[in-house]
Specification:
By secondary structure, this protein is of the alpha/beta class. The chain contains six helices and 19 strands. 22% of the residues lie in helices and 29% in strands. The chain binds flavin-adenine dinucleotide.
Amino acid sequence: PFDVLVVGGGPAGAAAAIYAARKGIRTGVAAERFGGQVLDTMAIENFISVPHTEGPRLAAQLEQHVHDYDVDVMNLQRATALVPADADGLVEVKLENGASLKSKAVVLSTGARWRQMGVPGEDQYRNRGVAYCPHCDGPLFKGKRVAVVGGGNSGVEAAIDLAGIVAHVTLIEFDARLRADEVLQRKLRSLENVRIITSAQTTEVLGDGGKVTGLVYRDRVGGDAHRLALEGVFVQIGLLPNTEWLEGTVALSPRGEIVVDDRGQTSVPGVFAAGDCTTVPYKQIVIAMGEGSKAALAAFDHLIRASAP
Ligand code: FAD
């Protein structure tokens, strides 16, 4: 069995694996796609001390750093179930291929995915005007016009944030009213360079073949289609944690995030979690790495205690 088994190979999982391996304990990583969301990212400019890098490059460096240590990396392996430890003190992780792995401690770092609009142009212009993270990509749209799709708390927060950077923000909400907290709505309405459109269904992202040039929405009351000319579309209709496989075993928040304490401990003894799949706020690379490191140290502490005579 492993001492620490990490499930997920994004920034959180890579950090957890390195921190665990540096303790000289038997460490494994099982990941569906090593690199995680970083593989889908282009420019990264907020990875502190690295002014500019690109997703595929950072993903390759994550993998290289992990391989510098004695870590058993099992790529292209999807976990489908977690079985808490019984008398033998070993947690079991079942894989899609039928195999099962056992470990004294487990770090869950399966990340999350942004909910997509599923409209024409969204895929084609991803990273070319279609963005999901205002903290990451907001500055790329300085002085330009953007839309934020989604009027929940994250959409309204994004619109307020972007209004301070870009020339103009159009917030588009499907429902007849915004769903964000009242205090956020008040702040949003006080901004001069923001327009709010409700009862509007985004139906297409427009582009010139290279980058975004606009967006089409359907007025859900009148039924007619409208075009907006703009350079960026921020999609803020939800972040879905990759935790479906843990339902019923590990305590999850109403949004499906793994509930962790300040050491990354979950509701299951010996099982820790880190990164975008957890309740820790602000989903970012540096945060995921810090949390992954912390969860591995907490797992190591757990091992010391569990093996005490
Ligand atoms: P992830 O990166 O999501 O990794 C999850 C890992 O778990 C993957 O290896 C995945 O394959 C694996 N996995 C999932 N389910 C299973 C399973 N059942 N079994 C086994 N493995 C599984 N952040 C920044 O700080 N700066 C940026 O500029 C930035 N830009 C971004 C741009 C885009 C387009 C996107 C999508 C995100 C961006 N982010 C950025 C956010 C950042 O990528 C995430 O916060 C970060 O990758 C989270 O790391 P993580 O390790 O928690 O999860």
